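S1.2 Input.
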Amino acid sequence: MQITTTFRHMEQSDALKSYVEEKLERVKKYIDEPVVAQSYMTVEKIRHIVEITLTAKGVTIKASEATNDMYASIDAVVDKIERQLRRYKERLKGHKPSTDVRAKEGKRTIVQAESLEQQQTPVVIKTESISIKPMSVDEAVMQMDLMHKDFLVFTDDSSENINVIYRRKDGNYGLIEPNRG
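S1.3 Output.
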């Protein structure tokens, strides 16, 4: 497991770094190797915030927790990730794994629009390349929930079309499929 630790607004601590590494060893039983973990530790006044992002085989899991003690925050965030992984693994038991390795590359662009009086067209402020993994609609919903995102672009493993799944305001999900015809 490759673990990167970033400290914000605090001194670097080898004890905290090794504590995170020790706690993250617990999640290895839920996810196949290789696993890349990024941990961010921040101190804001009296709040000690820990955010951890795990990435393995196309699955990304993100969790954060804030308490008055950094060690308690680490424990809480690792527990949260462990619960998410357990739930993800239980959901996967009912799904047939996709043996297809036809992941496509796509780009995600973030646009910032200034006031309409100043500028008529939005300006691209960030472009990011993403991998569009073939999966079923159920897998896409699980992945979106694990990443705490409002939408996800994916390739439907049965039709090979690029689809978008999104969270509706009423709590349900919407699916955008291309119309070939």
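S1.4 Remarks. The mean pLDDT is 79.
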